[in-house]
User: Which sequence fits this backbone?
């Protein structure tokens, strides 16, 4: 370093803010849903191609790791849905008080987990 000027603060020294974490997860779940939609399209194409291709998919889908990924995709669907509804309220200037923001963030996580478990156990 030629100049003796201080460096700007790096992200690692900043405190994680819960609203930022929820926002980042909202973006990650959006990406995961896009990738899941591509895989869903491939699954439909395999069904359309015939029995041999469907048997390949059936073999892959019987693995436990596949079921975990599918559960995580279900969790991402519900998280993205409930957090998107929360963002819609914010767009209208509702529920913007800091205490309500934190409570609604925890509610989004709780409802996402509860909905995913509901889908996987009861349906």
Assistant:
């Amino acid at each position: 370093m030629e100049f003796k000027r201080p460096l700007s603060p790096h992200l690692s020294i900043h405190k994680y803010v819960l609203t930022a974490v929820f926002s980042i997860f909202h973006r990650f779940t959006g990406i995961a849903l896009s990738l899941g939609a591509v895989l869903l399209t491939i699954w439909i194409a395999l069904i359309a191609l015939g029995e041999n291709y469907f048997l390949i998919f059936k073999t892959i889908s019987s693995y436990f790791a596949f079921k975990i990924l599918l559960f995580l995709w279900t969790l991402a669907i519900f998280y993205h849905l409930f957090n998107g509804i929360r963002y819609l309220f914010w767009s209208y200037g509702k529920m913007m008080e800091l205490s309500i923001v934190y409570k609604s963030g925890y509610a989004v996580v709780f409802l996402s987990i509860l909905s995913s478990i509901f889908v996987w156990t009861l349906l």
Observations:
- The domain at 38-122 is CATH 1.20.1300 (3 helical TM bundles of succinate and fumarate reductases).
- The chain has four helices and no strands.
